[in-house]
Design a protein that fits this description.
Order of helices and strands of chain A: HHHHEEHHHHHHHHHH
CATH superfamily of chain A: Farnesyl Diphosphate Synthase
Largest interface: A-B, 41 and 41 residues
Shape of chain A: globular
Oligomer: homodimer
Number of helices of chain A: 14
Radius of gyration of chain A: 18 Å
Number of domains of chain A: 1
Largest sheet of chain A: 2 strands, antiparallel
Low-confidence stretches of chain A: none
């Protein structure tokens, strides 16, 4: 995605937060530091940058949202869940270690996500409570979304059910990443509302595009197996709407997100650039 | 254990917090409301009562600590972990539903634990941050402790390793339950330190006693299978120290806990009663 300064920044902080020794450190480091686009931290940093916020105040939020994301991938890959063996071009956590370690590494990462936010010395208590309220809610919705996802395998569902599932499973945490940036930046309520419309649009766009890439991109580029959803008989946007209509749907949503950005009280060039990058991504 | 008013109070609140509909509600309710001694919430309420604190201010803490405990039992019972089929005299969550649902119900409960604390309207932000700092840390330690527990199966370990494992796996959350009560009560630092020594002692005593009961109590009374640790070749206090020395060890620790209570600035009769009940429990 190439927002290199934000990626470098969050990678350094993730590494620091995971440096303390403990029985789960190895498995947590393996999964978190393996890579990933760091899309959520990029969103958090970029939103706060619009309002000239000191980025040091965003580090705990950026890492917290990435820890939640990382834990969800570890648990989603488990044999009892999506049963995926490859993640970020390396064996999934439960293949590299074992299932028990993977479950516990995920559990530990969820606790750690909230712990780093609670203990951030740069933020005031009122702000932390607002951040934690947003993140705990998103984390809960994400687990719910995954439960819906598993319940609709081999089911014939309509586009509304699929959308609800994605809004919870991935949309909630993406919106949360944007919210965290907006909360620390203490921007106006009006800007918060606009940013929420923006994040809802890119959240869904991103997911539809993922479904399209799952069909179109070769495995080596995705960092996981191609056709992983289709192989599992999961309903996807292409399977319901068809490939071309799915492409149109996500392009339209990205356009809607762009429109929102123009309504902000500040110049949002960096987020527009992010949309452009997202739209042309190949993985 | 028969601290019925505290048990009734927390059961009512747990039920309320779990009343909202959602795809994980059924599995979460099944496991949380199945029963259990509610030992952690009892501790939280009892500690706060010593200082005449309004118990309504303790409800979120009592539920949060029980949600963390419940999630840990659901995950611990999974086939990849301790592989236990019975919990609270009913099929374990993964047997009643399936493994994926059990993993997600646990994940959701962990998020919910922090969510109910963050959103408690009766507590000030500063207090909430202190509570959350304590609970996130304990939740992380608990996951670490479980990882150590799994790593020492069929290993010959010394008593020090076993103690470290238990201090993290169960002691951390029990101490946390006491801490939460003390934080909301805003008692003096001196009383906090005394209560911490008390909770460390009963935490370890409780675990050693559990190991003893695992050998001595019949399955129907335990609510889970007897000899569950021995069957798994897990090191236990009786397997290292012998049965009689293990009994002496926990009796001594309960006595130590009693001694601490006498040092408090307030009358701690209710906690002494709790120790008496714990010491004579048969499950």
């Amino acid at each position: 995605m190439n927002f290199q300064s934000q990626v470098d920044r969050v990678n350094k902080k993730l590494d620091q937060y995971l440096s303390t020794q403990g029985s789960l450190t190895e498995a947590m480091r393996y999964s978190v530091l393996a890579g990933g686009k760091r899309f959520r931290p990029i969103l958090t940093y970029c939103v706060a940058e619009l309002f000239n916020t000191n980025l040091a105040q965003l580090d705990s939020s950026a890492c917290a949202v990435e820890f939640i994301h990382a834990y969800s991938l570890i648990h989603d890959d488990l044999p009892a869940m999506d049963d995926d063996d490859i993640r970020h071009n390396q064996p999934a956590c439960h293949k590299q270690f074992n299932e028990a370690q993977a479950i516990l590494a995920g559990d530990g990462l969820q606790a750690l996500a909230f712990e780093v936010l609670v203990n951030d010395p740069l933020l005031e208590s009122e702000i932390k409570i607002e951040l934690l309220s947003t993140l705990t809610h998103a984390a809960f919705e994400m687990a719910e979304g995954q439960a819906i996802d598993l319940s609709i395998v081999e089911q014939s569902v309509n586009i509304k059910v699929l959308e609800t599932m994605h809004r919870k499973k991935t949309g909630a945490l993406l919106s949360c990443a944007v919210d965290l940036g907006a909360i620390v930046a203490q921007c106006t309520t009006k800007d918060r509302v606009i940013l929420r419309a923006f994040s809802r649009a890119i959240g869904l766009a991103y997911q539809i595009q993922d479904d399209v890439l799952d069909v179109e991109a070769p495995a080596g580029v995705l960092g996981k197996n191609q056709y992983s959803d289709i192989d599992k008989n999961k309903p996807t946007y292409p399977s319901i709407l068809g490939l071309e209509a799915s492409k149109s749907a996500y392009i339209e949503l990205y356009a809607k997100a762009s429109e929102q950005l123009k309504l902000l009280s500040v110049d949002a060039g960096v987020l527009q650039l992010l949309i452009n990058k997202l739209q042309t991504r190949s993985f």
